[in-house]
Amino acid sequence: MHRLIIETLARDLSVLSDAAKAAHEAAIHEENIPDNKYDTLSLEASYVAQGQANRAQELKHSLQAYQRLALQPFSEGSSIRLTALVTLEDEEGARKTFFIGPQEGGLKLRLDGEEIMVITAGSPLGGELLGKSLGDEVELGNSRYEIVDLC
User: Fold this and answer.
1) Hey, where are the domains in the chain?
2) CA–CA distance, 99 with 5 (Å, rounded to integer)
3) Higher pLDDT, 73 or 28
4) Which of 28, 55, 58, 21 is nearest to 44 (CA)?
5) What is the pLDDT at residue 117?
6) What is the DSSP string of 95-134?
7) Residue 32 — pLDDT band, cuts 50, 70, 90?
8) What's the mean pLDDT when you consider all of the chain?
9) What is the distance between the alpha carbons of residues 21 and 14, in angstroms, rounded to a whole number?
């Protein structure tokens, strides 16, 4: 899971960096020099370039955080903490799996055909899960889930 997150962030960073460069080139290209005060194509392209550059910087920091991240060992009696891979099951048997990471909450990945969502300890769900153990229950919205797997 850890390797998959790093690969995904590195790929996303590469794509976004290329897009930011292309937007920057569009913003400064001579064909986009404004003809009058109402011609804002160059200005709009510069806003896009800046937004993409900012997001690329965030991705770079997230990638570095995951590259430095030391995975924690979990056993049957362990409490949930950073780097836990947690599977929850509702009363109907539906399962959801989450990885508790330092950043990039909301990132969805597929591992062995299963969707796994990265959450952070600071998120409402992450805060609810921290300190819980295998077999404990958590409430999410109107549903109750049991922690059925922790690794």
Assistant:
1) 2-68, 85-150
2) 10
3) 73
4) 28
5) 97
6) EEEEEEESS-TT-EEEETTEEEEEEETTSHHHHHHTT-BT
7) low
8) 90
9) 11
For residue 24, what pLDDT band results from cuts at 50, 70 and 90?
A: confident
Look at the block and give the residue holding tokens 């570095």: 64
CATH fold, domain 85-150, is Chitinase A; domain 3 (3.10.50)
Residues in Cβ contact with 3 at an 8 Å cutoff, skipping those fewer than 6 apart: none
**Tokens describing residue 16:** 């976004």
Q: What single letter denotes the amino acid at residue 91? A: E
